[in-house]
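Notes to self after the call with IL:
- keep both proteins in one doc
- input above output, always
- annotate only the second one for now

Protein 1:
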Amino acid sequence: MKKNPFSSAIATTRATFRDPMVAISAVGIILLLFLFVVWPLLEVVKQSVIGPDGTASLTAYFKIITTRQNYQAFVNTMQLAIIVSILATIIGFLFAYCTSHLAIHGKKAFSLMAMLPMVSPPFSVAMSIIMLFGARGLISYTILGMRDANIYGFMGLVFTQTISYFPIAYLLLAGMLQSIDPSIEDAARDLGSSKWRTFRTVTVPLVRPGIANAFLLVFIKSVADFANPMAIGGNYITLATQIYLQAIGSYDIQGGAAVAVVLLDIAIILFIISKYWLEKKSYVTITGKATQARVLIRDRSIVWPVAGFCFLVTAIVFLIYILIPIASFIKVWGMNYSLTLDHYRYAFDVGGRAIKDTTMLAIIATPIAGLLGMVIAFLVVRKKFIGRGFINFSSLLSIAVPGTVIGIGYILTFNTPPLQLTGTAAILIAAFVVRALPIGIRAGVSSLEQIDPAIEEAAADLGSSATKVFRTITLPLIRNAFFGGLVYAFIRSMTSISAVIFLVSANYSLLTILTLDQVEDSRYGVASAFSTILILIVYAAILIINLMLRQMGSKNSTVNHP
């Protein structure tokens, strides 16, 4: 007799839920994810089809097609995302290939460069580019003497997003290229294939899924980007900024929600393609340890152009980011380059509250996101029960959902009783946790999959409860992933802007929003001071978390980024 899958699932769930703490944790996490991830998104969809008179209406969607501004925002977003994704993926691939296949010195600079966008405010690149190439830019105005330089708009956004997001492609592709068994490429060369033909017919096809995944991840980041279009977009409106302009600027909540749904659909479709299709496709064959180490390419005709390009881009990235602390000491950028501490005095005087509020909220959100991520990873990898698929999908969904969509969803969901959280610290902390959660979960899942379940099963056989097994066995074994999740959660909370710009109130002030206000007012010295303070706080947190990790007995481990 054929076994009923549903009955089997119920039986498995009952067996899993015999431990009350597992049952409470699973049910509690399902409720939390529905409340803070799924429900706000459903509210956005609901609001998009409700007219001002409270009746169902598709007017807002027709306006997206018929209103020139909305239609242009859609076209602009797609155009920008496609171009940026192509450029960022190509540059990221060249960096990854340079790291894994070329014999050069100074490769560590690439890893440091890849970390800079993580620890900096999301509009740092835009701010630096304005200071270099804007109307009063150091290069455009002071050095070249251009009087009508205009970096705002499409070209400025392409440059800014490409520099900001190509490290994502680099980090993803570097691991894949390094994991290729060198004997596969060696076999092609032994059969007489040239280096170029081996690269074209062997290396590239092996990492084709990674290339496609990198393209999609950059695409998602580009369409969801809010800070850079606000800072340097000028009249080039994108969907993310249009949501804010309609919902906050024009008080058209239905119109803003409809645009948010369009942006949400794009992001979720790309996320599903990336996670459930591309991640299943892998042509990289790892057969154990290779018989010999990879023979790195030393041919100057290959090394010099590729490595030269990569080091040139690295130098540009470092110049862009080092400009931020330098500008914080310049009196009036573009006019008076004398040194001053006035910007820091102003930053601590006027922005002291924002520094305190941002840091405290991030400190509260960080352990919540870190621990919740490990618990979810434990449940997804080690336990089988009805609802596990919902936990897995919805917990990772927020990595694809644009921050502006989360922000407008929270306003619609938590603005009225029984859960009236608008204006409180709770809604900001919830936004921080939801945005930071997916990376911690991924790190936890990766670590758990490398640990033999027999270790935990042995403790359970000796009478330990699932809670005790998780606390005394599992968590210590995945502490590197746990602390990596903490680092990312703190960084993401400190640098968040797209979601929280909808949620800030007179009760709390956030550093990123205050900094963006200074950029829009062309007060680059103060904005640079705020950014420098934020970066120093983030690095201090990374140092503290690394010290904590060493104190727990992992002296050779450090956490830079997950």
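Protein 2 (the one to annotate):
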Amino acid sequence: MADLAQRIAQGKGDEPADIVLRGGRVFDLICGDFIEGDVAICGDTIVGIGADYEGKEVVDVSGLTLVPGFIDTHLHVESSMITPFEFDRCVTPRGVTTAICDPHEIANVLGSEGIRYFQDASEQVMMDLRVQLSSCVPSTDMETAGAELLADDIAALMGHPSGIGLAEFMNYPGVIYRDPEVLKKLALYEGAHIDGHCPLLSGKDLNAYISAGIRTEHEATSAEEAKEKLQKGLRVLIREGSICNDLRALQPLLTEITAPYMCLCTDDRNPLDIGEHGHLDYMLRTLIELGTSLLAAYRAASLSPAEAFGLKDRGLIAPGKRADIVALGSLEACDAHYVWAGGKLVNDAGFAARGDIAPVGRNSVKAKQVGPSDFRYGGNRSLTDVIGLRDGQVITDHLQEEIPAVDGDKRPDLARDLIRVTVVERHGKNGNIASGFVKGFGMKRGAMAATVCHDHHNIVSVGVDYDDMALAVNRLSEIEGGFVVVENGEILAELALPVAGLMSLESFETVREALVKLRAAAKSLDVTLTEPFLTLSFLALPVIPHLKITDRGMVDVTKFEIIP
């Protein structure tokens, strides 16, 4: 009651506010107006706007425009390749004060231990890190993951303050065809928040999926697909990651009419792209450049996500709301001069004052040693299934090419850009190895390999030389996971990710520099993809159409079955 009374007193001006932001203007996301006057903050709460206040601390924000802190509505911190603490330091100064994460990457390696690591981290970071509970670990029964989370396991993790609901339900066939274990998981969150994941789903199948209580969806890649999902009540999350680039396709749909039902997310964005272009700030700049109104863009970054995810305490600069505030030089540039997260100024001192927790998932790469012969790929039919890449998307095409076997092996064909792709089981469970073909890398020599391999996170490798592929795969066990690029028996570049084979223990600046070297090394192999490493990591995700590969073989995602 004392805190309540103090907030009221400071809002009325009977007591000096803890912090007063003076000289700026507030962008009102309800009416679209600009409000002059001070912003008063008591503890972690805004208590006054549009008036003159006295403050124990006064911050001059003259000439700046104040907007609510940005909310990233769907991401996997692990895919930034840095810990939650470094992710916090990387993106919070850009205005991201709330991030809604699904830790299913680490959960696929470590199970409940990985989710608890994120829950513990959420109690220490400056941003408000919301930890959804992973619904699909593994994503399907067509892969070997390091762990499995059943409904009872998820129930045991419920109740943490960071929770909002159930994370993206990728097993949409399991929903539509009413798999009993799927129904148990959905029943845990009956009437609560459940995130969706249903690429290209339409018609009655989409109706059935939404009927399960699904509320959001981030996989739409065209305005037509997104519009149907909006019309059927889903909140559409516009995604712009390092590989999934859907912003330009969906931008025409984001207007002041639809903005209350559309949000922004990055899903998977690495420190190199964040450093070169930005995070949600980049999305806002780009939307505005493409013609989206300021009001629609900034609503989609804060107010709309707050409403969509039930975070009623934020999304506006208004009395009673959480003091998540970004002070911008201009709305068009989205250039953060100051950021407050829960009333605390985001700066080096704030980051230094955080607590810490020990990393988990060390020595998690338990793959068997492989040799060149393990990458041979036979078959008695020359007609061969081939994964066809789309640069800038995780959707792949199901191609077929005539590739005759020579001495029992279908060799890479550089003239047709047909190279080997192999997945090696790395959790120490069965030693599976599966190979196939992928088209679209442009690679002319060498090999690449990674333990970032959605979502089971086995080892995935692509290459044209089997000796180089073997060296790359074996090197990953030595460095506890990560990325490796090899040519002619020499390691050109690598990035160690010892936390579950997914995250570095180094700073985001160090990881960013390593990614620069990796990208250059990939380019030296004539790889033409914009983001080759995340493209590599998504080749093995069997819930994204149309053709993928896991440690159990090539997967026809449309039929949801392993190809014999």
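Annotation: The mean pLDDT is 97. The first helix runs from residue 2 to 12.
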